């Protein structure tokens, strides 16, 4: 059967790939080999996007040396945004929520602060942010996005009155 690099409990673009079951997810999480392969696949995709995983414990990321060239690819081809959303969802399913947070924050920083990925901005705000499982971490990231969004009055991903009071 067709194998998925980042399997989910939902159908993707490949109609032949079967969605994961909860039992399969639990079995994957118990397998050291499967989890190591997931991290290797994640690192492979990050390198393709011009990003390096610098800490496997925390999920901390940084730009790769070839980031400028790879970011051009990210800006040019929007299908990458679907793959990134899938990777984020898979990381959440497999218990790597900290990896999710670092990847979303990386994209928010690159799109809103450094403005290197203008064509990824909508996906980062509309999709990447909302893959975060932890309500608290998601709120922190929405607040971070709001702080850096221009013009702030056009920010539609959270109520402004609550964002103003957020601590």
UniProtKB/TrEMBL annotation:
Domain of life: Eukaryota
An annotated Gene Ontology molecular function: opioid growth factor receptor activity
Pfam families (alphabetical): OGFr_N (PF04664)
Cellular component GO terms held in the UniProt record: membrane
Annotated InterPro entries: OGF_rcpt, OGFr
Domain Opioid growth factor receptor (OGFr) conserved: 5-163
Family: Belongs to the opioid growth factor receptor family.
PANTHER family: OPIOID GROWTH FACTOR RECEPTOR, OPIOID GROWTH FACTOR RECEPTOR OGFR ZETA-TYPE OPIOID RECEPTOR
Protein name stated in the entry: OGFR factor
Organism, scientific name: Rhynochetos jubatus (kagu)
Gene designation: Ogfr
């Amino acid at each position: 059967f067709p194998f998925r690099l980042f399997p989910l409990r939902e159908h993707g673009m490949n109609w032949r790939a079967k969605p994961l079951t909860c039992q399969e997810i639990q079995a994957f999480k118990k397998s050291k080999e499967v989890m190591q392969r997931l991290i290797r696949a994640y690192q492979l995709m990050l390198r393709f996007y011009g990003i390096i995983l610098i800490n496997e414990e925390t999920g901390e990321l940084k730009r790769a040396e070839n980031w400028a060239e790879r970011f051009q690819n990210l800006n040019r081809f929007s299908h990458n945004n679907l793959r990134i959303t899938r990777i984020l969802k898979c990381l959440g399913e497999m218990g790597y929520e900290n990896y999710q947070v670092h990847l979303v924050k990386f994209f928010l920083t690159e799109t809103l602060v450094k403005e290197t990925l203008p064509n990824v901005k909508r996906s980062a705000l509309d999709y990447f942010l909302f893959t975060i499982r932890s309500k608290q971490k998601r709120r922190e990231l929405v607040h971070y996005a709001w702080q850096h969004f221009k013009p702030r009055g056009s920010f539609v991903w959270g109520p402004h009155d609550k964002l103003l009071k957020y601590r």
